[in-house]
Amino acid sequence: MSKQKNSSKFRDNLMARSEEAKTVRKIVAIIVITLLIILVIGVISGYLYVKSALEPVNPDSNEEIKVTIPIGSSSSNIANILEENGVIKNALVFRFYIKFNNDSNFQAGDYTFSPSMELSEVVDSLKSGKLMAEPVHTVTIPEGKTIDELAEIYAKQLPFTKEEFLKKVNDPDYIHTLMERYPSILSEDILNPEIRTPLEGYLFAATYEFFEEKPSVETVVDEMMKKTESVLSKYLDEIKQKDYTVHEAVTFASVIEKESGAKDQRKKIAGVFANRLEEGMKLQTDPTVLYAQGKHKKRVIYEDLEIESPYNTYYVEGLPVGPIGNFSENSLVAALEPEESDYLYFLHDKNGNIYYAETLEQHNKNKQKHIN
């Protein structure tokens, strides 16, 4: 009887082990199949990812993207710059692509790319050092111009009106968008209700190239803001050290710009203004009076000085409420590095010569001698 029990128990154990083995085999098979599926999915996903990364960012785009490749840039740096500017989809894939094709000797310089370009076109451009397109429009904005004046310049050369330009640059929603895009240079100061137009002074004087047949106002403003940011960014630390806000530095630079067409005189003029500010004197500069009036005049008369405007530095103390035009980098440097002197006064004669004085008495003598 005990032998039968033992035999039955042995068979039960054997069957149990067999079932366990089957279960283990099933589990192993499931794991293997799962891993194979994951591997296949990974391979397919990787292939699709790389395939997508090798394709143009946007085959249907007509946008032109200006990119600067600095001297000494490595392939890795170039790949990152291209990805950041939306020329390619993935910097890592681009690096593998140029390594696989043994492409090198990329040249530094300013390029114009498009999101519709194939990687081979991008590489060919970098190797040849040639631009991929010629500008359709080239517009030069002189230094010292107001927004109203540059709106006229653009309206004569680009397919939008002066009114359309001014409407856009005075649109509160658009201004807030720009403030979010350029936080290092556009602050709440430009929203002061006493300011005539928020972007006055912030649209840099330069020559701009546009590669579209019909660039929009937004495209134009964005190009100008990028230029302003590139110039101001070099001086942000110095502006802070001088205890200026960016708005104050831009405003000061615009006043200096309007006061002198002679670059070599700007630091000296800035020194006079700095001395007056330190003494608690009003700046009393005629260009601010003309801006306050909103019209051009060859000569400012006494009645003009009485206009009650936050721009009129005969009326307000310190700097005007905002810039009175755009500025050159030279004027910005003068505002931040004024020439030291004891002068508190200066005047221009009809030939553009400038005469400085330490006292009001000497200033009046200069007036009698060179103006009257």
UniProtKB/TrEMBL annotation:
GO molecular function: lytic endotransglycosylase activity
Alphabetic keyword roster: Cell membrane, Cell wall biogenesis/degradation, Lyase, Membrane, Transmembrane, Transmembrane helix
Site (Important for catalytic activity): 259
Bilayer topology term: Single-pass membrane protein
InterPro entries for this protein: MLTG-like
Annotated GO CC locations: plasma membrane
EC number: 4.2.2.29
Places the protein is found: Cell membrane
One GO-annotated biological process of the protein: cell wall organization
Database matches in HAMAP family: MltG
Protein name listed in UniProt: Endolytic murein transglycosylase
Organism field: Virgibacillus pantothenticus
